[in-house]
């Protein structure tokens, strides 16, 4: 979700297990685009299969299909074992952000359940008021930037130093939690992932890596508020290409793609799977001669292990890797390489947006005007067999990128 040009997401699409590869051509319900850029909407594509054995954690906006605990949406359930991460990303955070949910204790006898519920309600209301008051004291919310599948985003600034920020409001019914192994606290999963990527300090500073930084966050009763970096000036890659009036030259596309691959390698080394890399989720800082790439919108991201396999697809349906159609499963590394190929294709074919099913049916072709090395890189990214696709580090060494 772009912080400056966010788009609404589409509805859920279901595919029965065991369906043939011809089902790729099925109709996907989605709302008509309201802007000239034909931005892609993301969705969850699921199928009624046996419980998944994939090892990953649920993230905000995801249904119970990726979780073993009671769901916020009990009608959508495919349980799976969550990955446990031993590191504590809360280390260094300011104190009012460390009061996440804690499991109830079974020890001892206390007041009646009704009395406890009433007491808890009063305490939660007081805590909510205090937390919201802190948010309003520290940050000024300004104009509306847009909406996405996880909530709405506003421009704003930090009052102490006028730092420009994006303020993301996520309804609690779209928020899932990751249990911390060290202290048993339950941390909002998107917060956990962003802290894991950046090691945020108590002062609210963020690192200089490609993933956009989490500056602050507030866990309220009805919503989760994320305070995110908002580079100024900047625009998403889709608008950058569109406003340019033509596809970028290969030399410029190389600069962007190198940064994207480096960002993906950083995520892979941190055991994070973004799941929805596309032009709309790539922000370019345009304040200098060379655009700096920032990766945004971790609302669908999850923690992975080497053996993690997925049956439920989260992301943009036009970018589903072919293995999901043939086996109803996909993995992090090959899917990320496929999506990087999609980004390069969309950059260099400005008036044609990539679609997996159309590409597999030979309705989309790579432009003959591209260099042989560039066409070879795209061909490798779009290898149908995921085991034959290059790994990210191999892709980074491709001759076109030298």
Automatic annotation (TrEMBL):
<feature type="domain" description="Protein kinase">
    <location>
        <begin position="139"/>
        <end position="401"/>
    </location>
</feature>
<keyword id="KW-0723">Serine/threonine-protein kinase</keyword>
<dbReference type="InterPro" id="IPR011009">
    <property type="entry name" value="Kinase-like_dom_sf"/>
</dbReference>
<protein>
    <recommendedName>
        <fullName>non-specific serine/threonine protein kinase</fullName>
        <ecNumber>2.7.11.1</ecNumber>
    </recommendedName>
</protein>
<dbReference type="InterPro" id="IPR051138">
    <property type="entry name" value="PIM_Ser/Thr_kinase"/>
</dbReference>
<dbReference type="Pfam" id="PF00069">
    <property type="entry name" value="Pkinase"/>
</dbReference>
<dbReference type="GO" id="GO:0007346">
    <property type="term" value="P:regulation of mitotic cell cycle"/>
</dbReference>
<dbReference type="GO" id="GO:0043066">
    <property type="term" value="P:negative regulation of apoptotic process"/>
</dbReference>
<dbReference type="InterPro" id="IPR000719">
    <property type="entry name" value="Prot_kinase_dom"/>
</dbReference>
<comment type="similarity">
    <text>Belongs to the protein kinase superfamily. CAMK Ser/Thr protein kinase family. PIM subfamily.</text>
</comment>
<feature type="compositionally biased region" description="Polar residues">
    <location>
        <begin position="1"/>
        <end position="22"/>
    </location>
</feature>
<feature type="region of interest" description="Disordered">
    <location>
        <begin position="1"/>
        <end position="128"/>
    </location>
</feature>
<keyword id="KW-0067">ATP-binding</keyword>
<dbReference type="GO" id="GO:0005524">
    <property type="term" value="F:ATP binding"/>
</dbReference>
<dbReference type="InterPro" id="IPR008271">
    <property type="entry name" value="Ser/Thr_kinase_AS"/>
</dbReference>
<dbReference type="GO" id="GO:0005737">
    <property type="term" value="C:cytoplasm"/>
</dbReference>
<keyword id="KW-0808">Transferase</keyword>
<keyword id="KW-0547">Nucleotide-binding</keyword>
<dbReference type="GO" id="GO:0004674">
    <property type="term" value="F:protein serine/threonine kinase activity"/>
</dbReference>
<keyword id="KW-0418">Kinase</keyword>
